[in-house]
Amino acid sequence: MIAEPMRIDTDVLVIGSGAAGMYAAIEAARAGCRVCLVDRSLIGRGGATVMAQMTVAVALGEETPDHWLHHYHDTLTAGRGLCNEELSRLLCEQGPECIREMDDWGVGWARRDGHIAQAFAPGHDRPRCVYVDFLSTGPAVSKTLRSVVYKMPGIRRAGDVCVFDLLKADGEVVGAAAWHAGSGAPVLISAKATVVATGGLTRLYRRNSASANMGGDGYALCLRAGAPLVDMEFVQFFPIGHLAPRLIGMDPIMWDPFRYKLGGRLLNRDLEEFTERYGVAEDGRYVITRDLGTYAILKEVEAGRGSPHGGAYLSFQHVPEERLREAFGPVIDRLAANGIDLTKMPVEVAPIAHYHMGGVAADARMQTEVPGLLVAGEAVGGANGANRLSGNAITEALVFGRQAGRSAAARARSMRTQPPAASAAREALDLIARDGRKDAPNPAAMMERLQAVMADDVGPLRTQTGLARALVCIDGLASELGERPFGGAVRFDMQRLEWFDLRNMLTVARCVATAAQARTESRGAHQREDFPAMREEWRANQMLRLRGDRLELSRLPAPAAEVAAQ
Amino acid sequence: MSEIATLKIWRGEDRDGGRWDIHAVPFERGQSVLDGLRWIRANRDPTLAVRFSCINANACKECMMELDGKTVYACTARLEPREMTLTPLSNKKLVRDLVTEIAPPAERLAMKDA
After folding, report:
1. Strands B94-96, A527-528: parallel, antiparallel or unpaired by DSSP?
2. What DSSP element (H or E) covers A197?
3. How far is C-alpha A210 from the chain's CA centre?
4. How far apart are CA A134 and CA A15, in angstroms?
5. Any A CB within 8 A of B50 CB
6. Strand, helix or coil for residue A544
7. At what angle do helices A443-457 and A494-518 cross, to 10 degrees?
8. Nearest to B60 among A46, A180, A491 (CB)
9. From the CA atom positions of chain A, what is the Rg in Å?
C-alpha cells in the first residue's frame, strides 16, 4: 500500500541541479524566495554540466577585443537561420555578467598575464572561450555552484526525487508530483513557480556524451503540461566522440581539448585526410564545425572508408612526444593505462549524441506558454537554432538559469497564497498507488532497443524510410510499456525508475522523429539523405503540442535574419 | 572461445538478510565493472539496483561500491575474466543491493516534514 504523500510547500520549485537549475535556485533565493531544488539523482553531480570539458564561450574581451554582438553574430551564423534571436541575444549579452559572477564565486577561470585566458574554438571569429582546465571546466562550474547553493539560506535541496508530472490548476502550473527513489514514497510539491532545468535528451541515443539522467524528462513534463516544444529535430552530434579502443574513466568527448591545443589529423581507413572532400580543409588546425564534421565522418564510413569500428581515425602521431606531454601532462598516463600511446597509434572516433538545440518554447524571461512554468538551460529550445556553437552550452545554462530564477521569484512574490496542488495531484499520484504487473518486460532492454533505433534511424543522417521505421518501433515500445508503471513502492526500484524514464523518452523520441520527418530539407544538425539541400521555405521553426494523446505539428516562418553585428 | 567474467553480487535490503546472485558476463578487454552490471540488468535481471549516472567519465562519483572488499568506482574498475565479488559500501546506510545512501545529509529528502 502506498503511503500518504509527503508534502512540500515552496515558493519556487527548481527541477534539475545542473548549472541552470543551481543558478536559478541561487537567483530566486537572493530575491528572498523559499526555494526547493530537487534532482532525480544527487544534487549537482549528474546532468551535463559536470561532464563539460573545456570551453565556455563569452565575449569578455580580456585578451582580444570583443563585443557581445560579435558572439551573437557567430551564434546566429552557426544556427543556420533558425535561432530565436531574442534568446541568442540574451545568451551573448548577459554571458559576461554571469561568467564574472562565477569568477567572483571562485570558479578559477584560467589566467594568462593577469587576464582571463580565452581559447579559440571552431565557428567563433576570435578566441572567446574561457576555461578552468582543459578537461575539468564542467566539474569546476558544478562545484562552485554547489558551494554557493550550500551557503545560500532559503534553498532546500533534495536528491533522488523523481518528478513524473507537473500539476495544473486553472490552467497554471502549481507544482509537481514526484516519488522518492530512496524509499519509493510519493512526494507532492506545491510551488508558486516551477523551473524545469532537466537538460537535454542525449540518453535517447546508443552512444552519448552525457549522463544517464538526460532522457528528455523536462521536454515530456512540459509537453504534457500544455507547453509547446520547438525545433525538436535538431539533435547535435559531437563528431569526434571516442570510439575505440575501449577507454574508461574519461568522458568520450575528451578529444575536443586535444584538438584545440594540438590540431590533430582526422583520417579515414586509408590514413588520408578527408574533410576537404566535404568542403573543409583542416591542414592540421581544428576548424570544422560540429554539423560538418559529423557529416564528413559518416559519409566517409558510408563510402566504405571508415575505421575498423565504423568511425574515423584521429591522429596526433605527428606531434612530438614532449609537446604532447607538455599539453596534456597526466592525461597521457591515464591513456597509457588504457593501452593508448598517442605517439604510436591513432584512436578511433565517431559522432556521438551531445546536445539538443530544440526544447521547450520560452520567451526571454524563460516563461513558457503556461503560467507558473519556466524553463532554463538545455531544456529551453531555440537559442542555438539548427546547430550550436562550441562553448555556448554552459553560458546558456548560467544565463538562462539566472533569468529563470529571477522570473520565478517575481511571480512567486506576486502570489499571496500557496496554490492548491493536492487536488490537482490525484490523478498523477494514482499512477504510483499500485504495484506493477509481475510479467513486465525488462525496461533496461527496452531502453537499449529505443537507443538503437534512434541511433540507426533518427541519428545525424535521416531518410523518410528510416524515420517511419523508427516511429513504428517507438509505437511498439509504447504499447509494451503500457499505462501502469512497472515495479513497486520499494527502495530504489530501478524498474519503476526506468518505466518513468521510458514514458518520457518515448514521448520525446516521437517528437524528434515526427519533426524530422516533416522537415524535408537538410540544415545544420538535421541532414535528410532524401532532401540534401537547404531550402528557403524551410527557414522556419516547427512547434509541437500535445492535443489529447496526439502530437500536433505546426510551422512558423523564422523572422527575417537580423544579424545585427559585423 | 570467448572469455567470461563472473560477478558475484550481494542482493537485499537488509544487511543481516540478503543473498548472493552469480552472473556470467561476456568479457571484452578494456571493459569496466559497470559495463558488466549494466549488461546484467539489460540481459538477465532488471531488478538489480545499482546507482550510476555518467557511465564512463568518473565525473558523477555515484557508482561507488566494494569490489572484493575494496571501495571502487564501478565505472573505472576493470572487468576481469575471473570471479569478482561486489558488495554495497559497508560504511554507508544500505538502500538496496549495491545502492547505499551516499548523499550528504543536507541533500537528502527529509522524510518527516513539510
Report:
1. unpaired
2. none
3. 8
4. 29
5. yes
6. strand
7. 20
8. A46
9. 23
Contacts of B34 (CB under 8 A, 6+ apart): B50, B52, B55, B56, B63, B74, B75, B77
Question: Closest Cα of chain A to B67: distance in Å?
Answer: 17
Return d(Cα A337, Cα B58) in angstroms, integer: 15
Say if CB A107 and CB A128 are below 8 A apart: no
Distance CA A409, CA A538 (A): 38
Residues B52, A212: C-beta atoms closer than 8 Å: yes
Mean pLDDT in order along chain A per 10 residues (566 residues):
82 97 98 97 88 90 96 96 97 98 97 94 94 89 96 96 97 97 95 98 90 92 98 96 89 86 91 91 80 92 95 94 87 88 94 96 98 98 95 97 98 94 89 92 98 96 98 98 94 96 98 98 96 96 96 92 48
Helix (H, G, I), strand (E, B) or coil at A399: helix
User: Is the distance from CB of A60 to CB of A118 less than 8 angstroms?
Assistant: yes
HSE-CB for A182 with a 13 A CA cutoff: 20
ipTM field: 0.95
Which value, to the nearest 10 degrees, does the dihedral of the CA atoms of residues A86, A91, A96, A99 take? 150
C-alpha dist (Å) from residue A164 to A9, A221, A377, A487? 17, 7, 19, 15
pLDDT at B113: 46
- The answer to whether A290 is a known catalytic residue is yes
Nearest to A126 by CA among A185, A63, A212: A63
CB contact under 8 A, A185 and B111: yes
Residues of chain A contacting B96 with CB distance shorter than 8 Å: 490-492
Q: Which residues contact A293 (CB under 8 A, 6 or more apart)?
A: A239, A240, A266, A275, A351
DSSP class of B70: E
The rounded distance, in Å, linking the Cα atoms of A377 and A356 is 11
Say whether A170 sits in a helix, a strand or coil.
Answer: coil
Please write the tens of the pLDDT for every residue from B39-94: 999 999 999 999 998 888 888 889 999 999 999 999 999 999 999 999 999 999 99
Count CB pairs under 8 A between chains A and B: 137
Give the residue from A202, A547, A219 showing the smallest Cα distance to A375: A219
